[in-house]
Specification:
mainly alpha, about 65% helix
């Protein structure tokens, strides 16, 4: 997958590295802004209870 991405990206090696970094940052931003907030209510670790002793 990474080799195919490397071959598809245009430009020199330095430009390809920069494009890969921008793509990685964009993916992380999409995950934190839309995906993780959408699935957070479905996660079981949000339903914790502490019983009194």
């Amino acid at each position: 997958m990474y080799a195919a991405l490397w071959r598809v990206l245009p430009g020199s090696t330095a430009l390809k590295i920069l494009q890969c970094l921008v793509l990685a940052l964009a993916i992380v931003a999409v995950l934190f802004l839309w995906v993780f907030p959408a699935i957070a209510p479905l996660m079981p670790f949000n339903e914790t209870t502490v019983e009194g002793g």
